[in-house]
Amino acid sequence: MEVNMVTTDAGQVEANHESFFDRYAELKAFDESKAGVKGLVDAGLSKIPRIFIHEQHKLNKSSSSSSPSSSSLDTKLNIPVIDLGDLLADTSSRNKIIERVKYACEKWGFFQVVNHGVPSSVLDGMLDGVCRFHEQDTEVKKEFYTRDLTKKVYYITNFDLYASPAATWRDTLSFIMAPQPPNPEELPDVCRDITNRYSNYVKGLGTILFELLSEALGLNPSYLKDIYCAEGLFILGHYYPPCPEPELTMGTNGHSDSSFLTVLLQDQLGGLQVLHENQWVDVTPIPGALVINIGDLMQLITNDKFISVHHRVLAQKLGPRVSVASFFRQRLQPETSRLYGPISELLTKENPSVYKEITIQDFLAHFFAKGINGTSTLERFRLSNH
């Protein structure tokens, strides 16, 4: 954060410095409490601390503008819903599903899947496990609290707490589950077994989805798996406590994912919105469904054919809202310096490459340095002539 020193008023300079240090001190005190946003709610706050107040949110409360940062919302649109139940029925059924996947990836970047093979007992159990972790005694959770994002299991509030303009109303439990999962004893007792079960189901679903995406691109079904898109998996268990002033903050800021592909399990409370044709669209929860979205790395390797779109989560008076986001990509320090660029089979003279070849390390270094600030990580790697 830059402090403005260009002023002739010594008192103003001091005030600017004071404002800067006050904010940092508040962030640090909140961070060091290790109690997260839930700790604030448990303390009975009726007003949110100023570190959570989003200036643009206040400005746009009564706006009717359709800009992406506004409160514009289309309640008539819905992201595509795709039934995977007939996938193995016959070739014709599979081809229809592939066409629907292709449409969703090109036009929306998001879709929901039903009849996906993950038992409802596992879905409910995973949501319950994440909820149980976050609702434990703070002293128990503190053992997992860290800002060392290389750990395989950790609890944190706002990974970009010190980098973002304003904090968001959310706590998170994180697991790196592939390619090298944690030892069982590293996982919290309250959700150990269900996390292992759920991640195994998600990996199986990921295999199916990457085959469908490969075929939707006109490639061999195993193409995306063969270039290791499904190699890494990490899972975030988000907990959004009820917010006393939801109009002043966000649950999650508008952003696009850094993954190849994301599988999201959400409860029935709602609050997730997708930016479609410059309007925010509610992703209405469907019992038993999973939300699938394209990530930035998939947009990069498909040369903008599949789109990674901005989405956000609103803070709400009701709660808690619980969701589980599973990201397919290697984590912070991949073992390989493998390069990823637009897939050569998708390029033509009329459709040349629009991105540089990059490593996952290059991509993630920029993603984590900038935090969730509303800008796309992809722009850093777009070729200058595009």
Keywords:
15 strands; alpha+beta; 5-stranded mixed sheet; 8-stranded mixed sheet; disordered N terminus; 386 residues; 19% strand
Which SSEs are present, and which pair or pack?
Blueprint: H1 10-33, H2 36-42, H3 55-60, E1 73-74, E2 81-83, H4 91-107, E3 110-114, H5 120-134, H6 138-141, E4 153-156, E5 171-178, H7 192-216, H8 223-226, E6 233-240, E7 250-255, E8 261-266, E9 272-276, E10 279-282, E11 290-294, H9 296-301, E12 311-314, E13 321-328, E14 339-340, E15 358-359, H10 360-370
Parallel strand pairs: 1-10, 2-3
Antiparallel strand pairs: 3-11, 4-5, 5-6, 6-13, 7-12, 8-11, 8-13, 9-10, 9-12, 14-15
Helix pairs in contact: 4-7, 5-7
H-E order: HHHEEHEHHEEHHEEEEEEHEEEEH
Class based on secondary structure composition and strand pairing: alpha+beta
Name the shape in a single word. Answer: globular
Give the strand order, joined by hyphens, for the main sheet. 2-3-11-8-13-6-5-4
- Please tally the β strands and state the result: 15
Helix content: 25-40%
Strand content: 15-25%
The profile of the biggest β sheet is: 8 strands, mixed
How much is the average pLDDT?
A: 88
Q: What is the count of helical runs? A: 10
**Contiguous uncertain segments of 5+ residues:** 1-19, 59-71
Separation of termini?
31 Å
